[in-house]
Amino acid sequence: MDSIQKKVFMVSLGCAKNLVDSENMLGLLRKRGFSIASSIEEAGIAIINTCGFIQPAVEESIETVFEVIQRKNCGALEKVYVAGCFVQRYGYKLRRQIPEVDGWLGTGEIYRITDLLEHKNKSSSPFFIGKPIFLADHNTPRIQTTPFYSAYLKISEGCPHRCSFCSIPGIRGHLRSRGIDSLIIEAREMVGRGVKEINLISQDTTMYGSDLNSGIGLEDLLERLLLIRGLRWIRILYSHPFEISDRLLGLMQGEETICPYLDIPLQHVNKDILKAMGRLFSEGNSMRLIERIRSLTRPISIRTTLMVGFPGETDDIYKELYDFVETARFDHLGAFIYSPEKGTLAARLKGIPDHRIAEERLDAIMRLQANISKKNIQRLVNQTVPVLIEGLSPETDLLLSGRTATMAPDVDGRVLINKGQGVVGEITPVLIKEAYVYDLVGEIIYP
To answer: Which tens digits make up the pLDDT trace of 381-438?
Structure first.
């Protein structure tokens, strides 16, 4: 291979967990001697790390694959490879339907990325899909693709839950927690190269360590991370509502380094829907959890994810969900329409609401949440809050952009700064002057 042929560009779709896989694959390729391209235009090889969780993600993956294949067909690329969740779920069928792809890699085989690209048998495209049991650790090469000041730390792989609507256990395998020492080594390396914010991720962060039979859990990991000098923010993402312990809440209340932020995907609140989902956590339990969190003296920002249009969701059941959102007054909320996923238990259920009705329900909940979010963040006006400076606003060079500790990267709002000079990657006091639906506007306060 000449130099341009060995230049690789990675397209990473889906969630932050998938992004970490992409970073590991890039690290393995660089170690093997491949050059990493900063754009697809300068690459000879493209790898698409796909998502296949729900139908919209599948559609995005298919569309992206064909867009990149078009570049190969017109001579702009030598090779196109497809990896990730979409491959793990549909790979055998895809291999027959899209012969233009030069190789396929499942979620459990990312360590074989160099084998994929160096495959010599020209009579067939390489196809590496097996049982997902691989677990990357601090020894697995990785190239950080997020801004230098913020990184994701994947603390476990796979999922111990069996929600009836979810395809993740089949795609990602059983729960596999990393050793705590491995995580601390990687976190120290991150901070050593300038990372200020570490976001803990997995399919369920609160289940961390439950498979290790060592008595170590998320709280123990947090206590070890707190000892790392120079680490300013630790954020916990993807937490199951069953596992929010008093010890965890105590740590969040007493340690400023742990961001006052909990991401708790509740999915629904009606007991019959939750039973059909395999998630036995009713509205009463959900409200009690929210009240527990809000009883802390330190205000905690709560994010949740909800699903509308699940089989059996009547108008009355939907109103129960709507009323719950109105009462709970979440700081951040994401919602989506249920789609039956092949191979899941829920796909066999009857009584799926008409898609038009589901869209109306989704729109109504998001309009409600927009009003709630705006009222919630208006409380910050005339307050000074720490803001992580991220650089110029994507919309205009006249404004800086950043995030508070209650705003996760990529999914929440931001702070626009219209006065003062800030340093990218530094956490700076900002006086909030205005509040909109999701975003804040403020000015830097000098000591």
So the answer is: 999 999 999 998 888 878 999 999 999 998 999 999 998 889 999 999 999 999 999 8
Q: DSSP 3-state assignment of 439?
A: coil
Nearest residue to 258 (alpha-carbon basis) of 231, 291, 230, 294 = 231
Q: Is 142 part of a structural domain of the chain?
A: no
Of 347, 378, 409, the position where a domain reaches its end is 378
Instruction: Provide the number of structural domains found in the chain.
Output: 3
Identify whether residues 325 and 294 lie together within a single domain.
Answer: yes
The CATH number for 401's domain is 2.40.50.140
Query: Does 230 map to a domain?
Result: yes
Q: Do residues 77 and 46 make contact, with C-beta atoms less than 8 angstroms apart?
A: yes
pTM, to two decimals: 0.92
Q: Which long-range contacts (CB under 8 A, 24 or more apart) does 180-186 make?
A: 180/209, 180/216, 180/220, 180/221, 180/224, 182/137, 182/138, 182/139, 183/138, 183/153, 183/155, 183/221, 183/224, 183/225, 184/224, 184/225, 184/228, 185/138, 186/137, 186/138, 186/153
Assess whether 194 and 333 both reside in one domain. yes
Strands 384-392 and 400-403: antiparallel
Q: Residue 160, CB half-sphere, CA atoms under 13 Å: how many?
A: 17
- End-to-end alpha-carbon separation of the chain, Å? 56
Q: Are 180 and 63 part of one and the same domain?
A: no
SS3 131: coil
Look at strands 7-12 and 45-50 and give their pairing.
parallel
Q: Domain range spanning residue 315?
A: 150-378
